[in-house]
């Protein structure tokens, strides 16, 4: 996905008035590291499509913007939210670093909880993770303290879900199925939280995992 370059004239419309958060890649034609990081920026733009806008600003063609925002070196990445700069990093960033720069400002689904937030809530005893995967997957590895209620049984076991010693947080393998169930339950007036990114993201964040013998 080609990342569009915007001019000074387009900056107000594309960045300052954007409903979505905007990740700006400040770049220059003579900048070698900018060319190195370009494919990563394109991959992030694809991943965040519909959630955030990704644009380029050439500091030589848009000198006024570069001076106003005090861009002293390239590449520099800056996140704008509701017309204001809210985060910035300099240098060649990896895919994960770029996503993490934007992530706090992305729109979130109702009931969505991030892995690190869930870990903190578990430590505080406020929630109980509910593993909705198949029994063999749960048996191999799960979030510590998780109870097992398969996805297809959730709606028939709501009373059990709400008698847990903490608020239930559903999770599946990648987060998509538990998100759909949470959305359906919310429509029925039974809001339930779910883990964004599921067990895969929990693992990727290097958070504790229980592996029964």
Walkthrough of the structure:
The chain is an alpha/beta fold and 213 residues long. It has 2 domains: 8-105, Glutaredoxin; 112-204, Oxidized Rhodanese, domain 1 (3-Layer(aba) Sandwich). Helices cover 36% and strands 20% of the residues. The protein has 9 helices and 9 strands. The strands form 2 sheets. It has a 5-stranded parallel β-sheet with strand order 5-9-8-6-7. The longest helix is centred in the first third of the chain and has 16 residues, at 32-47. The protein is elongated, with a radius of gyration of 21 Å.
Shape: elongated
Element string (H = helix, E = strand): HEHEHEEHEHEHEHEHEH
The low-pLDDT segments are none
Strand order of the largest sheet: 5-9-8-6-7
SSE layout and pairing:
Elements: H1 8-16, E1 22-27, H2 32-47, E2 53-58, H3 63-68, E3 76-81, E4 84-90, H4 95-102, E5 112-113, H5 115-123, E6 127-131, H6 135-140, E7 147-148, H7 158-161, E8 167-171, H8 176-187, E9 193-195, H9 198-204
Parallel strand pairs: 1-2, 5-9, 6-7, 6-8, 8-9
Antiparallel strand pairs: 1-3, 3-4
